[in-house]
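Objective 1b. Sequence-to-structure analysis of DNA primase.
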Amino acid sequence: MIPQSFIQDLLNRVDIVDVVGRYVPLKKGGANFMGLCPFHNEKSPSFTVSPTKQFYHCFGCGAHGTAIGFLIEYSGMGFVEAVKDLAQGVGMIVPESEDRLPPAQRAEQQAKSMALSEAMTRACDYYRQQLRQADRAKQYLIGRGLTGEIAARFGLGYAPDGWDNLRAMFPEYEAEALVESGLVIDRSEEEDGNRNGRKRYDRFRDRVMFPIRNTKGQVIGFGGRVLDSGEPKYLNSPETPLFQKGSELYGLFEARQAIREAGYALVTEGYMDVVALAQLGFPHAVATLGTACTPIHVQKLLRQTDQVVFSFDGDAAGRRAARRALEACLPHAGDNKVIRFLFLPSEHDPDSYIRELGADAFEKQVQDAMPLSQFLLNVAIGDNDLRTPEGRARTQFDAKPLLQALPPSALRLQIVRGLAQLTESTPAEIETLFELAQPVAKARVAPPRAKRTAPVGLERQIMRLLVAHPALASELDQAALDALLNPVSEHAEMLAQLVMMARELGTHAVFATLAETLRSSGPDFEPLIAEIAAEPETDADAARLELAGAIRQSRMKALRDELEQLVAGGLADSTAQARYRELSMQQEQLRREAQAEMARRD
């Protein structure tokens, strides 16, 4: 758990204009910066970035948030990953509960990671430069139908033949970073063999190079494709501190905007599929990196879009890969996600299919792809004979681990019903037999908690002021707090939550920090945050006076209500009479404060 104090300090140090400006061209427009929204298609800029609020807001689609929120939405990072990315940019080290390393050792690790990243960037530049003068490599790419524009977009390059060509880019060829990044291989003297006594040599030789980028656009690895008939046909970077195959998708960085525009991500089996599909009008394709699809891959994709289509060859190997992808998808499948599986004829890959039958025919195949629910049932049925009790029992046996991996949802219930029908059972029997978590068919589902009504009047005014200027919460005295947190109020719980969170952030709290904190607590404050994000910055001193006046009105209302109750009770005893006098004095004091405030303003 990252401490909230660190988040606040981080948002105070980063400049959201710089963060957003790395991805979106911005122009100064009055007090804010303007640009085309990266989250929806538009021709006129409605996307604003406020340097004073440290917040972005789109008047077209309503997207808004802090620098952390922008990285999460734009790059598909997780919260912790986004925080770490921003922290690295301003020289901060994220404290983690499980990280017990001394600060000096943690800083050393960070420096080492930066050295590896620098080595990969320099190598990428070198390979791209070499491609310009490598006619054989260029002819190979041209033969695959690629243009120079696509090659440049994906940063394609060429690793020349020879044992140590990287010396031209790295005079410090013996540096440890080259081995740890996977660019060169270090062998003992006994292993040198036919390498003419070389202890260190380039990993990639005479190959077309595909840079692998992370969600931030940094080169973290390479895939090399042999030009002739050598083996292996594709050679990937090894696992390094920067690069883990089970966590990265080739082409995701380049495809992010296209995925939003197309409404789905297309997952293919290789680098050339991705690059060729981009050339042929499908720039929203990505690929796993020579490994089976993992739950992390699926999670990254579903951060970008609610629809994912996996494309596999129709042969046995393609079916096995699809089965592994299905298993990776199950923990993340839900009612608001659409996951489908496309199986092309065995003689085709996506590239050849489009070239022979056209882009429209391929798009039709995508739209008709098999939904996850049907593929799961097909996998469970397999070769089982549903006409026999044994075949139906075996189908249930094979379906059990798949259904257990699904979270409780309407989708799971639909699949349970489908399996029950196929195996002559009832949904409740399936859920009991499979010991499914939170059974849906046999248990009554608790109704969702009623959504809180939006605050109005004084309460809304006070909440709005505290969200826009959270530092004011730390200035409230006990009398003001008592008035705000009146338990009779319909929104007392919501207001108490806001005051508590704002006061915990301290006297230097700002709108962006509180907005990030409130967002993690649920959607109740989202309309206020969006409203404030869309308006010009307000003056803190004016807000302080307005808040004081609103709290005074709130206290006056509470006093009037209690006085009316006492009068209605007849003021029968001395206690009630004393309380009436006390409240009347408080009421008069508040009137004098209000008159004094009006005089100061005049």
